[in-house]
Amino acid sequence: MKDLFSIAGKVALVTGGSRGIGLMIARGYVEAGATVYISSRKQDVCDQVAAELSKHGTCHSLPADLAKESECNRLAAELAAREPKLHILVNNAGANWGAPLAEYPDHAWDKVLALNVKAIFHLTRACLARLEAAGSEADPARVINIGSIDGLRVPLLHTYAYSSSKAAVHHLTRVLAVELAARHITVNAVAPGPFESQMMAETLRSFGDAIKNSVPLGRIGAPEDMAGIAIFLASQAGAYLTGTVIPVDGGITVRPS
Predict the structure, then answer these.
(1) Architecture of the domain made up of 11-248
(2) Is 90 helix (H, G, I), strand (E, B) or coil?
(3) How many CA atoms lie less than 13 Å away from 99 in the CB half-sphere?
(4) Distance CA 126, CA 30 (A)
């Protein structure tokens, strides 16, 4: 039981790992003893963050623009050239777009769905061989998709493509969980509520007090909250979960309306 929550020695790939929720997860994994690869679109930022995290463990930079299927395939191939097994894939890279209904542009749908939904499908498929190599009946490989509570409830803001994409992430998680179970790969999703991140920064600046007051636990999510759920799902403690969508939101989605 003492190693129930250990991920020491596992290999993890965290997309969007240079900032926000992805960085919270990547830092938690590094400090817990995993070998972590982070990917983000900007190479200089990705390299800088990997170097900083490497002060606390082992972290490598593998930049990629995951909105393109070719880049998902390239990232998977570069990882495969370095690692025979991939124990944990965290599909976190994402985009948002807000605009009033009458002004919401069609290209916003293309951008958001390409990164938030299609990239999860493409990268997971491209990493299957390494995930299968890592998984066993007792300790499956893990795919962890980052959804959102905005995919579980109607959001207050005009983020039509984002909220729709996150609902799609949750259902894609269930579909892949059934598909990959026989290959000893679990697939689960985390649906974060409000956390301090670049994507949430402007919203928190404008509505921070109101958002905080809407959370039954009375606070914004902390990095440890996100690292904790990600470590749980990647460890032996989470080995028998698949197809779940776990809100990490301080109780927002169960609050009476």
Answers:
(1) 3-Layer(aba) Sandwich (3.40)
(2) strand
(3) 10
(4) 24
Residues known to be catalytic: 162
Determine how β-strand 58-61 pairs with β-strand 141-146. Answer: unpaired
Tell me which H or E stretch contains 248: strand 245-248
Largest CA distance in the chain: 56
DSSP character string of 28-61: HHHHTT-EEEEE-S-HHHHHHHHHHHTTSSEEEE
Question: Is-contact 21 226, C-beta < 8 A?
Answer: yes
Beta bridge partners of 248: 192
Half-sphere exposure of 157 (CA within 13 A, CB side): 18
Q: Which sign does the torsion angle of CA 73, 75, 81, 87 carry?
A: negative
pLDDT in tens, the chain (257 residues): 779 999 999 999 999 999 999 999 999 999 999 999 999 999 999 999 999 999 999 999 999 999 999 999 999 999 999 999 999 999 999 999 999 999 999 999 999 999 999 999 999 999 999 999 999 999 999 999 999 999 999 988 889 999 999 999 999 999 999 999 999 999 999 999 999 876 666 666 666 677 888 899 999 999 999 999 999 999 999 999 999 999 999 999 998 86
Domains in the chain: boundaries: 11-248
For 177, other C-beta atoms within 10 Å of its C-beta total 20
